[in-house]
Amino acid sequence: MMDNLSPEIWRLQAAVGLILAYALMCWRMYRKAALAGLPAPRPQPAAALAAVRGKPVWIIHASQTGQAEALARQAARALEKEGVEVIQRRIDQPWLDEVSAARHVLFVVSTYGEGNPPDHAISFARTQLAAGPCAALRGLSYGVLALGDRSYPQFCAFGRQLDQWLQQSGASACFPRIDADRLDALSLKRWQQALQGLGVHTPLLTPPLDAGYTEWRFIRRRCLNSGSPGAPLFKLELQPQAGLPPHWQAGDLIDLTPPGGDGRPRSYSIANLPEDGHLELIVRSVRRADGQPGLASGWLNETAWANDRVSLRIRRNPGFNLECGVDTPLILIGAGSGLAGLRSHLQARARAIADSGQPAPERSAWLIFGERSERHDRPCHSELEAWRRSRVLSRLDLTFSRDDPIRAYVQHALLEEAQAFRQWIAAGAQLLICGSAQGMAQGVEQAMREILGDEGLEQLRAAGRIRRDVY
Ligand SMILES: Cc1cc2nc3c(=O)[nH]c(=O)nc-3n(C[C@H](O)[C@H](O)[C@H](O)COP(=O)(O)O)c2cc1C
């Protein structure tokens, strides 16, 4: 019978059979997905699908305390869920040479210090942004989510600078830059809408913030510098209202909303480790221009009574955490309340040495710490001396800025000890810097540049060997 069919009818039958077989295969795939509880694949025009597959979306972040990084990661997961290929990079990792193949490039960047980029992005800003327009970016489609805080004069400065550079380089924005003020809800909604425009259909449910606020209570305070010519410095103790303290690691921060305030949280470096069973802060009293005590420091250092409640949350601070073991020497530099962030690292080092069962290495930790007067400003003096005796601290250099005849800051001690500093760096030391951004951190940066040279300093920074918590 088949032999009697004309060749045209035979071809037609074969084609219909093929179409039916393809339809059956598609139906089976659809059923399999439905039975597995997966959403059925949305029909996509073949050309669009090929474009999406062939051209990934790039997401590049610059983050000091992890919020921009968390938002970038969240956006990447959301796009990947929709089948979009995503490439994620930190802004200081190589990306400029490859990015021309991107469909869109999204930047999530924060601003730190006084309108500066996050620490790991400083070299990028110095080399790339400062060099002017970049030909590799011409014709690129990009979007910027800038994180910042309007209470700083240079609101979202790094995000703005980056946006301008991208425009000058001939890239075009696929949505207007979003400037988020302390992750305000409206900006996050606009970010969500921008991602929808790129194909994200499911809402970004969980805000990528660290643990939410919980109730704590004030336990006690102790003045660390009675008689000082400077403002009082207090060590404070807080405990969760219920249960044990949550986990945190050396270098982390808290956000604290003082009772009766404007609802704006203030950040402080945590001065100890959770194994203590409570949380400690080292806080300097600040006075506003009208002579009134600062809201948060006033409450902590003057007003709070034992058992008063306060709402706080613990915040990761990747720019000031460490991953290294006891074999890596630490150089810790700070002044005043900056002792808080350094102390948590010294506690961690002391514990790590005790756990190793070995004596402290020859170069364990070197603390260079500055205060005002030797007589009155010796915060945590006996603890530091005990660490020196047990060799957790291999070196302790204290400088005092109000004592005659030698009035010195930490940067002066650093320059004086330039030779030893070079040796420690050559031995692989990791640097930790905590305290005021303007006075202390700038001076230290300049001294390090003098000792190591521009290139040496940039190399250290690029290797992630300079961690800072400066304010
Ligand atoms: C010490 C310090 C300095 C800051 N300086 C600025 C600033 O100059 N301009 C600004 O808009 N935001 C500033 N911020 C706010 C941060 O940009 C904002 O908290 C952001 O959400 C942090 O994102 P990240 O965790 O990704 O670094 C500063 C925050 C801190 C803790």
Termini Cα gap: 90 Å
Helical residues, percent? 25-40%
Total discrete domains: 3
What summary fits the major beta sheet? 6 strands, parallel
| The CATH class of the largest domain | Alpha Beta
Looking at how many chains there are and whether they match, the oligomeric state comes to: single chain
Mean pLDDT: 88
Bound molecules: flavin mononucleotide
Query: Considering the protein shown, what is the CATH homologous superfamily of the largest domain?
Result: Flavodoxin domain
Which structural category fits the helices and strands? alpha/beta
Tally of strands: 17
Shape: globular
Uncertain segments: 1-5, 29-51
Domain FAD-binding FR-type: 211-323
Organism: Uliginosibacterium aquaticum
InterPro entries: FAD-bd_FR_type, Flavdoxin-like, Flavodoxin/NO_synth, Flavoprot_Pyr_Nucl_cyt_Rdtase, Flavoprotein-like_sf, FNR_nucleotide-bd, OxRdtase_FAD/NAD-bd, Riboflavin_synthase-like_b-brl
EC number: 1.6.2.4
Describe the protein's topology:
Layout: H1 7-35, H2 46-54, E1 57-62, H3 67-81, E2 86-90, E3 104-110, H4 122-127, E4 141-148, H5 157-168, E5 172-173, E6 178-181, H6 185-197, E7 214-223, E8 233-240, E9 253-257, E10 266-269, E11 279-284, H7 295-303, E12 309-315, E13 330-335, H8 339-356, E14 365-371, H9 381-389, E15 395-400, H10 410-416, H11 418-426, E16 430-435, H12 437-462, E17 466-470
Parallel strand pairs: 1-2, 1-3, 3-4, 4-5, 4-6, 13-14, 13-16, 14-15, 16-17
Antiparallel strand pairs: 7-8, 7-12, 8-11, 9-10, 9-12
